[in-house]
Structures are given as structure tokens and as C-alpha cells.
Amino acid sequence: MNSPLSASSRTPQDPAAENLKHQREAIAALGHELRLLVDATVRTEASPETTQRLADGVRALTGQLIGRRRSPADIPEVDEFPGGVRMYSPVTGPGSPMAPPMRVAPYEGGVVGRCLLGIAHEGPPGYGHGGISAMLLDELMGWACAAAGRPGMTISLQTRYRGPVPLETPLRVRAHVTATDDRKIYTKGSIATEEAPSTVLVEADGIFVAPDPDVARALFPILDNAQ
Ligand SMILES: CCCCCCCC(=O)SCCNC(=O)CCNC(=O)[C@H](O)C(C)(C)COP(=O)(O)OP(=O)(O)OC[C@H]1O[C@@H](n2cnc3c(N)ncnc32)[C@H](O)[C@@H]1OP(=O)(O)O
Q1: Closest CA to 35 of 98, 84, 88
Q2: How many domains does the chain have?
Q3: What CATH number is associated with residue 172?
Q4: Best substitution site from 87, 155, 207, 223 to test ligand 1's pocket, by max atoms within 8 Å of Cβ?
Q5: pTM of the full predicted structure?
Q6: 104 lines ligand 1 (CB under 6 A)
Q7: What is the ipTM of this complex?
Q8: Could you tell me the residue range of the domain that residue 100 belongs to?
Q9: What is the Cα–Cα distance from 57 to 202, expressed in whole angstroms?
Q10: Where's the Thioesterase domain (predicted)?
């Protein structure tokens, strides 16, 4: 299984790789514009008439996007599953209007994620929603498992909120594997600002399980097709 941090197996000269790159760039460009739209939407004080007109305009745009719809079980062609690029991940996906998106890199035996939360991610006024913090940590601890060669699914996530997470502030999320026990992988994670990286605002303990192969095939039929 490839690590999500590893490069794609296709070479840049490969026409299929060029096409994939082109597709991903376009998806990321749309994701970027949609994130700006989401941000503008949750900030707007436009009149009801203007808001209604915009809703009609957005509906017309959405109509253009409905073509080959995928079922939840399908893997997008632009993705690498398992263990690779997820263009529409709600945390790291450059094509997701919901994602901050968090950029992940290796870091001191684990992984680090960098992102900003916007008003769309707000919980208490001016601060991030606790569920969003848990989502960032869950995802990054999952990456830490994969980067350690032990990909798994979350079975337990415990979060402690020590301080509110400021919006529109560069954040540093960290995660690493602390221990493994058969199929269980134990992880720790934290969120701090880039400005004060040693002041932990949220910390988490996560337990992941590498699913039994039969369970994994039942959950992800695509794994059978890939063989
Ligand atoms: C790189 C991309 C990163 C993405 C990260 C995103 C992470 C996620 O959000 S994953 C989504 C949320 N998680 C889930 O939906 C998982 C739901 N759980 C399941 O489907 C199953 O428990 C699954 C598939 C993980 C494991 O099933 P299976 O392979 O049958 O394992 P199973 O035999 O039941 O359990 C293995 C061990 O874990 C323990 N365990 C399983 N579930 C739990 C649980 N919820 N709580 C505590 N222990 C548990 C079992 O007791 C067992 O321990 P032991 O061997 O000591 O008895």
C-alpha cells in the first residue's frame, strides 16, 4: 500500500500522467473558487433579493456539474485508493469546498498538517468548531498510521480542548504513531498555531485498526477489482 505522502507511480512524461495532472489542476481550481464562494456566502449581508438571485445563479451552475454522478462506493478516477491522493477529502482534498484544505508533510517521525480555518468552520464566534478540530486530528492521525506503513480506520478518538482554535490563523496540526498492538495502532495528535507551536490548543489520542482482509474487501469492493 502506498503512503499518502509518496509520489504517484506514474512518470511525468506519461500522457496518462499529464492528463491526470491536468484533471487534478482543474478540480483544485474549482475547489478553490467554491471555497471562496462558501466563505463569501457565510459572510454576506446581501439583501434577500440579491441572495435569492445568487441562489438561482448557483442552481444554474450546479446544473452544469451534474453529469456522470458517482455512487458513494465509487472511487473517483483522479484518486489513488488505498493510500494515495483523495481529491475530495473533506480535510485535505483540494477539490472539496468543505476542506480547509490541510497540506500534509512528514515531520519528526510523524506528520504535520498546515491549514487555516475560515468562518465556515466556526463554532464559538471567532473560533473553530470542536468537531472540525476533531476531524483535522482524525484525518492527520490516519495519515500518520499510513505513513508508518500501518493504514487503518479510527475505532476511538479522544479529544481534549485546552484552548479555542482561532479562525483565519495559520495552524500547525501534528500526529504520530505511539505504539502498535497486532492490528491496533495507537496515535497522538495536537493542534497549535504556527505562531505559538508549543501552546497546544487541542490534543487527541486515537486508536486505529487495520481491518481484517475479509472485512476490508467487504467494506471496499474496489480492493477486489484492483487485484
Ligand atoms: C490516509 C487517509 C486517512 C483517513 C483517516 C480517516 C479516518 C476515519 O475517519 S475512518 C472512519 C471512521 N471509522 C470507522 O468507520 C470504523 C468503524 N469500525 C469498523 O468498521 C470496524 O471496527 C473495523 C473495520 C475498523 C475493524 O473491523 P475488524 O477487522 O473486524 O476488527 P475487529 O476484529 O472487530 O477488531 C479488531 C480489534 O479492535 C477492537 N475494536 C474494534 N472496534 C472497536 C471499537 N469501536 N472500540 C474499541 N475497540 C474496538 C476489537 O475489540 C479488536 O481488539 P482485540 O483484537 O483486542 O479483541
Answers
A1: 98
A2: 1
A3: 3.10.129.10
A4: 155
A5: 0.91
A6: no
A7: 0.92
A8: 1-227
A9: 39
A10: 126-192
